[in-house]
Amino acid sequence: MPDLHTLYHELILDHSRSPRNHREMPDADLQQEGRNPLCGDHVHVWLRMDGDRIADVSFVGKGCAISQASASIMTTAVKGKTREEAEALFNRFHDLVTGHLSDEDAETLPSRLGAFSGVARFPVRVKCASLSWHALRSALREEPRTASPE
Ligand code: ZN
Questions:
Q1: Ligand 1 centre and the CA of 13: distance in Å?
Q2: Which domains are delineated in the chain?
Q3: Which positions ≥6 away from 142 have C-beta within 8 Å?
Q4: Per residue of the chain (150 residues), what is the pLDDT tens digit?
Q5: What is the distance in A from the centroid of ligand 1 to the CA of 30?
Q6: What residues sit around ligand 1, an ion, with C-beta below 5 angstroms?
Q7: Whole-angstrom Cα distance, residue 142 to residue 69?
Q8: How far is the C-alpha of 47 from the C-alpha of 136, rounded, in Å?
Q9: Which DSSP letter does residue 81 get?
Q10: What is the CA(85)–ligand 1 centre distance, in A?
Q11: Distance from Cα 87 to the centre of ligand 1, integer Å
């Protein structure tokens, strides 16, 4: 039986080294930035919408491996989803990393999101893992762009 923690660790390393959908999107319909001052993480998320559906999603960012891998995996998880589906996924991912998702429910999550289940044991890492998801939800809700603190 493969060691799940090793697999998850490799998945996070793979996405942090070779992030997917890692580019700016000049023709984006929606965008939002997120910052985690505790860790120095920064992500910028862009979305192109087709009606209610996320036609394309991309990000650029810098920071720790968990924040960048999570952003990369988030883009692969929400592309093609409706706003409602993406919000539902946000809620379940947030429950997962804060330790509020039942094991039964966790099993129905896309497996690559399960890679972050261990984060619940490290509260300081929750913000790293959820940063890009907060930026996604804020963009989908068309909240005003977060002012850059610099
Ligand atoms: Zn971080």
A1: 14
A2: 4-140 (3.90.1010.10)
A3: 30
A4: 456 667 778 899 999 999 999 999 999 999 999 999 999 999 999 999 999 999 999 999 999 999 999 999 999 999 999 999 999 999 999 999 999 988 888 888 887 888 888 888 888 899 999 999 999 999 999 998 875 544
A5: 24
A6: 39, 41, 64, 67, 128
A7: 24
A8: 8
A9: -
A10: 26
A11: 22
